[in-house]
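Pinned message: reference record for Acetyl-CoA acetyltransferase-like protein
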Amino acid sequence: MSGDVCIVGIGIHPFGRTDGLSGLEQGVFAVRQALGDAGIEWGDVQFAYGSSDSAGNPDTMVDRLGLTGMQFINVRNGCAAGGSALFSAQMAIKSGEFDIGLAVGFDKHPRGAFNAMPSEYNLPDWYGEAGYMITTQFFANKIMRYMHDHGISQQTLGRVAEKAFRNAVHADHAWRREPVDLETILEAPLVSDPYTKYMFCSPAEGGVALILASEKKARELGKPLVRLKAATMRTRPPKSFEVFAPSIDIGGGKATATQIASADAFRMAGIGPGDIAVAQLQDTEAGAEIMHMAENGFCKDGEQERWLAEGLTEVGGKLPVNTDGGCLACGEPIGASGLRQVYENVVQLRGDGGGRQVPGNPKTAYSHVYGAPGVSAVTILER
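Predicted structure (C-alpha cells):
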C-alpha cells in the first residue's frame, strides 16, 4: 500500500467582492467549511501553511479559530502562493513529521490593476516607469508574439473567455456567472491589443482551505481517497520569456518554469498528459490558457486554434479546461487562486460538480498556476 498524501477536506468562500468581510475572515470561513467537510475539529490540525498577498498574515487567523499553539507558517510567492502553500503542506506530511494539516489562502485586493513594485522583484525603478510592471501590457505583448508564431486568432482568445463565463454559470463560488456571447467579447473595448476587457481576469477577494492527511489518517477518517500524486513548484530557467523577468536573451529558450514543473509532476505521478481527465490551467488572461495548454504538454503550439473551434476543452470535451470558469470568471485573489483550482479538481473527482461536472467518472485531475517573476506550480490528483 502506497503512502500518498490525501486531500480529506475542502472549503471555499465565494470569490468576487464581499464588502464588510476582511480577506482573513474569508479565509477563516473556508477553513471552518474544510474542517466540517473532513469531519475534524480545529484542535486536530497539527500545522498550517497560509498564503496571502495583500490581506495580512494568515497565521493571525488563530485568533478566530483557536489558540492551540500549532505551527503556522506564512507563504508569499506571487500568483503561485497558494500552490506553494499546498506544496509545503504535502512535504510536511510526506516527511513523516505530521499526519494532518492545512493549506489555506485568501486575499482582498483593492479595485483596479495589481500595483506591483519593481523593488520587490529586484528590478530598477525605470522598469516600472517605462510601463513594464503593468501586467496587462506584458501579457498582451507575449500573446501577440505567440499568435504570430503559431497562427492563433483573436477569435480563439474570445472562445476561451466565452467558455469561462459559460462554465461559471454552474459554479457557486465564481464571481462572474452570466454567460457572455463571443461577439460581445470580441467587440468589447480593447484593454491591451489583442485583449478586450472580457479577456482579462480581475483582482478579487476570496478564500480556499484544503485539509491534507497521510493515507493512514485519511483511512481512519473514512474519507474517499483523493490522492495528491504530484506537487511541484519551479522557478524560471535561462532564456524564458516571463512576466517581471528583467530581460530576455536574443533567440529565447525552449524551456519555461511551467514546462519544468509540468514535466517533473508527470514524472512523479507516473502518468502523461493523455491520462488527465480534467485540468485547471492558469488563465489570468485568455491567452494564458492557450499558451499553458501547450506548455503543460496537452497539445502542440498552434493546435489550440483547432481545439477551441472543435470544443475539445469544453466540460464534455476531450480535455475539459477550467471547469469553474477559471480566473477569468472567478477573479484572482492571489493567495487563494491556486488553491481554488485544486478545490475544483477535488469537487470534480468526487462527482459533485453539478451542471459543470465532467462526465465519465474522472479519475485524474491536473492544476497549474503561474506567476511573477516566472514561477509555476503544478499538482496532479488521482482517486
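Pinned by admin. Summary line: The mean pLDDT is 94.
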